[in-house]
């Protein structure tokens, strides 16, 4: 559903243009990642502001859950009122991710088609194949998806809200979020290394950007 042909054509044209300047598809992917992050920066700021506000109102949400325990309709109504009062869109944090999905899918289909030369390389790996660093008993150790999983775990820890109680639901949700990096590593393991290179670079920049924006937003709310 996220495969959009004109975005694939734009990504391919951008890559080819950057390759003509940089002379390497790997460097072109890294440059593409930086361009995408710059374009999405306003959305990232909005996302961080929304997440910061969510943390600020968490004690109020916890109080509502305790006060109206078992009354789901009232809890939903009171929670919605707090969101409205504080001008918070609980789904606002999803927007940058949704915007990036078509770009990620465009890269995936670009590197799994014949659009990129099979000879395109970066460091030790072909960009159209998994990046086997070495092999143990006929099993390839692909570095980029493993690195991607580790970075995603770090990012999840940064984004995870502090626990406000012993809620089984809250614990289950946080455990599920922490399991996501393992799932994504498994999914990405056989992906073309060009796609994994984009995702690793994107996550590294996202972590640095998140730290910067969090500091900036915290100063803004503490004025």
Automatic annotation (TrEMBL):
Keywords: Cell membrane, Chaperone, Membrane, Protein transport, Transmembrane, Transmembrane helix, Transport. GO terms for biological process: protein insertion into membrane; protein transport. PANTHER family: CYTOCHROME C OXIDASE ASSEMBLY PROTEIN COX18, MITOCHONDRIAL (PTHR12428:SF65), OXA1 (PTHR12428). The keyword Membrane applies. GO terms for cellular component: plasma membrane. It is a multi-pass membrane protein. It comes from the Bacteria. InterPro entries: YidC/ALB3/OXA1/COX18, YidC/Oxa/ALB_C, YidC_ALB_C. It is found in: Cell membrane; Membrane. This is Membrane protein insertase YidC. One of its GO terms (molecular function) is membrane insertase activity. The chain crosses the membrane at residues 25-45, 91-112, 132-154, 175-192. Its main location: membrane. Belongs to the OXA1/ALB3/YidC family. Residues 25-214 form the Membrane insertase YidC/Oxa/ALB C-terminal domain. The keyword Cytoplasm does not apply.
């Amino acid at each position: 559903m996220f495969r959009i042909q004109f975005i694939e054509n734009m990504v391919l044209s951008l890559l080819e243009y950057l390759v003509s300047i940089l002379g390497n598809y790997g460097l072109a992917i890294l440059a593409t990642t930086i361009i995408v992050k710059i374009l999405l920066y306003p959305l990232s700021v909005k996302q961080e502001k929304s997440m910061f506000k969510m943390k600020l109102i968490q004690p109020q949400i916890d109080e509502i859950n305790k006060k109206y325990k078992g009354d789901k309709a009232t809890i939903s109504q009171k929670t919605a009122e707090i969101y409205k009062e504080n001008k918070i869109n609980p789904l606002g944090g999803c927007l940058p991710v949704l915007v990036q999905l078509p770009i990620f899918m465009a890269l995936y289909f670009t590197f799994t088609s014949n659009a990129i030369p099979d000879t395109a390389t970066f460091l030790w790996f072909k960009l159209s194949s998994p990046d086997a660093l070495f092999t143990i008993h006929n099993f390839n150790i692909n570095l980029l998806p493993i690195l991607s999983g580790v970075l995603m775990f770090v990012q999840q820890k940064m984004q995870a809200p502090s626990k406000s109680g012993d809620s089984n639901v809250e614990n289950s949700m946080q455990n599920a979020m922490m399991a996501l990096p393992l799932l994504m590593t498994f999914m990405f393991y056989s992906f073309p290394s060009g796609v994994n290179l984009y995702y690793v670079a994107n996550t590294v920049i996202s972590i640095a950007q998140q730290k910067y924006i969090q500091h900036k937003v915290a100063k803004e709310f503490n004025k």
